[in-house]
Design a protein that fits this description.
Blueprint (H helix, E strand, L loop, with lengths): L10 E3 L16 E4 L8 E5 L11 E2 H45 L4 H33 L6 E5 H17 L4 E5 L6 E5 H17 L6 E8 L5 E8 L6 H4 L7 E3 L13 H11 L3 E5 L7 E8 L22 E5 L3 H13 L3 E5 L2 H11 L3 E5 L8 H10 L7 E6 L4 H10 L3 E4 L4 H10 L11
Parallel strand pairs: 6-8, 13-14, 13-15, 15-16, 16-17
Antiparallel strand pairs: 1-10, 2-3, 3-4, 5-7, 8-9, 9-12, 11-12
Helix pairs in contact: 1-2, 2-6, 3-4, 4-6, 8-9
C-alpha cells in the first residue's frame, strides 16, 4: 500500500468499487456538443437511453472537468485493484509455499509446526483484509449494526494494547500504556471498540522508523461525560495536506512498490466510521514528517450506576457432545470443520450436496445441521431448509446456515427460510464450540457467538 505519511509523495483518494448492497451511485452523464444555439461553448447532457431535454446545459469547461474526473476515477480503480491483488497475493504465497513444503519434504515436528503456523497466520491476514473491506462497505451503506452493551473501557484498552504489544516491541520499540484507576463506563460494541484501538496501534507500529515509542493513554474528561483515548507515536509523521483526507477510504500517498508497507488504506476510514457510530469523534495531528503522530478518540460515557458491574471476561464452558451433519460441497471447508467438531467429542457426518444431505438427515436424524447456502445442483441451502422444515421427523433439528455472505439482509433471508442461526465463513473453532454449547437463535445475535 502506498504510504500516506511519506513527505515526498502527494496524496490521492482512490475510489473503491461500489459496495455490495448499496444503491447504485448517480452516474455522471455522457456529453456531446450540441447542434443547437451556443454550440461553441455549451454541451447538452445525455441520459443513458435518451436526451434529457430539461437538463441544464454544461459549459465546455465543466464537461472537461467531468471527463477528467471520470478518467481519474478509472485510474484510481485500477490502482486500488492492483494494490488489492498485491495484498492478497502476499498471504496466498505464504500459504501455498508452506503447503508445498509440507507435501514434498519430510519435516521434523518443529518445522512442520512452523509451516502450519505460517498457514494460520497468513490465512488470518487474508480474513482480516476481507473483513476490513466488508466493514468499510457496510459503513458506507449505513448497514453495520453495533452489538452494544455497557462496558468498562479500562480492561478493553488493556486487552487491546496487549494484543498489539508483540508487533510493536518486535521492532525494538516501546509500548507505554497509562490507564486510570477508576472504571470508565460507556455504551458500545466491545468487539468494534477493540477493533478501533487495534487499528490505531497497528497503524502506529507500521510507521515506526527503527526503535521508537508508542504511548496509549485513557482518561476521563473533566466534564465526566466523555472519555478520551490518545495514541501517540514517534514514527514518520504526517504531512499537513495529508491530514485533511487521512480518514477517507482508500486515501493513499503515491510511492514505489519497494517502499510499500502493506495495507489497503482502509484502516483509518474504518476507525472513523466505527467511532462515529458510537457517537464519538476521532482526530489526527502531527508536527510534520519525522515528528510522529497523535490520534485522539473521544467517546461518550455513561454513569457507573447505569452500568451492570462485570469483569468483562467471557468464560468458555465445555461443549455438549452432539450428532452433527455438515452439508457443503467444498471439501476444503468441510474437512477442517469436521475435525474441529470431532475434537469436541461430537459425532459428525458429512454430505456434499443438498439432496444427499436430506437423505442422510432422514437416516440418522442429527441434532444439528450446518448447511452451506451455495450448494451445487437444483437444491441450494434454502431448498434444504424448506425440505427439513417440511419433514415431521426433522423439523425440530437445529439448523444453521453457513455462508460467505454476512449482511443483515442475508441473515434475515436465512431466518425467513427456516434456519435457526447464521454463521459467516470462515467459522472459527471457538464459534463452533460455543454454537454446540449454546444453540443460539437469531434473536440472540446481538450477542457474539
Amino acid at each position: 500500500m502506498p504510504n500516506y505519511r511519506n513527505s515526498q509523495f502527494r496524496t490521492t483518494s482512490m475510489a473503491p468499487p461500489e459496495p455490495a448492497g448499496c444503491d447504485p451511485p448517480l452516474q455522471t452523464p455522457l456529453t456531446e456538443l450540441s447542434d443547437r444555439d451556443d454550440r461553441h461553448d455549451r454541451v447538452a447532457p445525455l441520459a443513458r437511453d435518451e436526451l434529457l431535454d430539461d437538463s441544464p446545459l454544461l459549459t465546455l469547461r465543466e464537461a472537461a472537468l467531468e471527463i477528467e474526473a471520470l478518467h481519474d476515477a478509472g485510474r484510481h480503480k485500477d490502482e486500488f485493484l492492483a494494490i488489492l491483488g498485491h495484498e492478497l497475493r502476499n498471504p496466498l504465497a505464504g500459504i501455498l509455499n508452506a503447503i508445498e513444503v509440507l507435501e514434498q519434504v519430510a519435516l521434523q515436528e518443529a518445522d512442520a509446526a512452523e509451516m502450519r503456523a505460517v498457514i494460520r497466520r497468513q490465512a488470518t491476514n487474508m480474513s482480516r483484509l476481507v473483513d476490513g473491506l466488508l466493514d468499510v462497505a457496510r459503513i458506507a451503506c449505513g448497514k453495520i449494526e453495533l452489538k452494544q452493551e455497557r462496558l468498562d473501557l479500562v480492561p478493553l484498552l488493556r486487552d487491546a494494547t496487549e494484543d498489539q504489544r508483540q508487533a510493536i516491541e518486535s521492532q525494538g520499540a516501546t509500548l507505554r500504556v497509562t490507564l486510570p484507576a477508576e472504571r470508565i463506563w460507556c455504551l458500545g460494541d466491545r468487539t468494534r471498540l477493540g477493533q478501533v484501538v487495534s487499528n490505531l496501534l497497528g497503524n502506529a507500529a507500521k510507521f515506526l522508523e527503527g526503535p521508537g515509542e508508542v504511548t496509549v493513554e485513557l482518561r476521563n474528561d473533566p466534564s465526566g461525560q466523555r472519555a478520551t483515548i490518545e495514541i501517540r507515536d514517534t514514527g514518520m509523521g504526517i504531512e499537513p495536506e495529508t491530514l485533511i483526507d487521512i480518514f477517507h477510504p482508500f486515501v493513499q500517498a503515491e510511492r514505489s512498490r519497494e517502499q510499500s508497507r502493506g495495507g489497503l488504506g482502509i484502516g483509518l476510514a474504518l476507525v472513523k466510521g466505527l467511532v462515529e457510530l458510537h457517537g464519538g469523534e476521532v482526530k489526527a495531528a502531527s508536527a510534520g514528517p519525522g515528528q510522529g503522530s497523535q490520534f485522539t478518540v473521544s467517546l461518550p460515557t455513561c454513569s457507573a450506576q447505569a452500568a451492570a458491574v462485570h469483569d468483562g471476561v467471557r468464560q468458555r464452558v465445555p461443549a455438549i457432545r452432539r450428532r452433527v451433519l455438515l452439508i457443503d460441497d467444498q471439501r476444503d471447508a468441510i474437512l477442517p470443520a469436521k475435525i474441529m467438531l470431532e475434537l469436541f467429542g461430537n459425532e459428525v457426518l458429512t454430505a456434499s450436496d443438498g439432496l444427499g444431505g436430506i437423505i442422510l438427515a432422514r437416516q440418522v436424524v442429527p441434532e444439528i445441521i450446518l448447511c452451506d447456502i451455495g450448494l451445487p445442483g437444483d437444491l441450494d441451502g434454502f431448498g434444504v431448509a424448506a425440505a427439513i422444515r417440511a419433514d415431521t421427523t426433522l423439523r425440530h433439528v437445529y439448523l444453521v446456515a453457513v455462508s460467505g455472505y454476512g449482511r443483515d439482509e442475508d441473515r434475515e433471508r436465512c431466518r425467513e427460510a427456516g434456519f435457526d442461526f447464521h454463521l459467516t465463513k470462515p467459522v472459527s473453532s471457538l464459534e463452533l464450540e460455543t454454537l454446540m454449547t449454546n444453540l443460539p437463535r437469531f434473536r440472540d445475535q446481538s450477542t457474539p457467538v
